[in-house]
Amino acid sequence: MLDGYMGKILQINLSKKKYIIEELSDNLIKKYIGGSGLAAKLLYDLTDSTTDPLGEDNPLIFMTGPFTGTIIPTSARHAVVAKSPLTGIWAESDVGGSWGYELKKAGFDGIIITGKAKDPVYIWIKNGKVEIRDASHLWGIDTYDLDFIIKAETDPKAVVTCIGKAGENQVLLSSIMSDGANARVAGRCGLGAVMGSKKLKAIVVRGNQEVPVANSNELKKLVRQYAPTMVKETKMFGKYGTSGGIEGHEEMMNFPIKNWYQERWPEGAKKINGIKMAETILTGRYHCRTCVIGCGREVEITKGPYVGVKGAGPEYETIGTLGGLCLIDNLEAIAKGNELCNRYGLDTISTGAVIAFAMEAYEKGIINQTDSEGIKLTWGNAEAMLILIEKITKKEGYIGRLLGQGVRKAAETLGQGAEEFAIHVKGLEFPAHDPRAYNGVALSYATSNRGACHLQGFTHGFEKAFIMPEIGINQPHPRHQVEGKGEFTAKLQDLMCLFDSLKLCKFAIIGGIKLTAMTDCYNAVTGLNLKNEDLMKIGERLYNLKRLYNVRCGISRKDDTLPPRLLTHKRGPNLPHLGKMLHDYYNFRNWNERGIPSREKLKELGLDEEANKIKNI
Fold this sequence. Notes:
Strand order of the largest sheet: 2-1-6-3-4-5
Number of domains: 3
Number of strands: 17
Low-confidence stretches: none
CATH superfamily of the largest domain: Aldehyde ferredoxin oxidoreductase, N-terminal domain
Number of helices: 26
């Protein structure tokens, strides 16, 4: 077994209440590394196009990587993977905090959950020992309170990942929460609904085993080289968090406003940014395990209508969706909405997006007072936002059931032109970055394997400030430039697959991390002797494998697009020239005109076996 791995995957069948422990092969991890990369191979083999996302046969996979559990800064991460009930395609969500770190220390690289328990259960893992315990008394308890209760039943130092009421109710926007009130989230794609469909309330882990490292002295030397730079370069980012730059994003017309329709909102952005948070409700910073950045916010509201809010503060994406998209400029109300979503286990991005969609439908008369059960869904109505979070969580009434499906299905249900302002790609609602501000974001959203996602390419960072010379990005790529954007985006998507499989936070890029440092650390941890180009080839393999999964689900060029509003309604000087960029992107990737990887490319990447499972390739 390679160093950097515990060598064990825990497979649990909840229908049978039995588990087995599988050995992890060197060949598998050399080809797919870990994290969402290894999970992609497992999901591909365990499911097909007919798999019901909320059925017993859809596996819920939790996977760490070789960096998890080591001293490498920002590496305490894990991936959660399944077939998405929201989109019907590939789903992955990456999580920080300490749960993945603790799982590795407990003796496992990953967990595969199949089946469905008859009654609610939770899983307790400590240093290789596994118990499936009754959770009937925990069903209905929110994620913050559950963290305290379940630690009292297991170990005060245990780490918990769990679902809230939204996941229990199989709301398609539901998330999986970790670390209690510190609220680290597997937010996207409705993975909480998958966990809820299995009647699995939580997985609790505790361990103190050492993760084997091939050359610990070399790893320490490497960390000493780049950690001080990371601390220095992220000083302001740590001080003000992800929301510190909201005013700058608004000025660049990147921050979302009024369901992606309004051009500017400087007065609103000023009231809800990270600087304002630091001046008002901020009480501290949260660091994920092994992190030197500390971008997490700790907030508390001690007076006013939202008194009692205490715990993780809203991130940039949450402020963008619950705030800007809905024209809500009350930071305390946004913090309250964030806490409700965290306690109930709702994705704040999709929740904010579907509420903004409802407000526009209400404005246009497509949703009326009867539909909204008397709630005035007017722009800027913070109380309406909070009420809708409750209704979505509980699937309460027509409006709660409608919006809990996400914007794509809600628009299909409403008709009357609602599809024109349902802002999503492949069924996944937009995060808070405007593709009209960055052409790379436009192309990355359109081609992202999980649907609209800024993290699967992180292109906006490299169009604004960052470089990666090892892959030919020697200066930031002009954000409105079309030429070369296909190659630029594809290379970054492959690189981000490495972050997600090695388990390294993408904010390490802000701290100056480069591919060479990642390769050197991987070699020090595993004992291998790979080059930068070897790792990038693995990243390319992983991106293509996830694309193959989606091709098997029916995804093609017709789905690699953006909503009409983002292609026709100008915000500032730019509209994405998506057709030209997509053509160049497909050519660079060696995909055909339908967006399907060629046989030649798949053979080059060692994916012949996977390709044989799909007709007409």
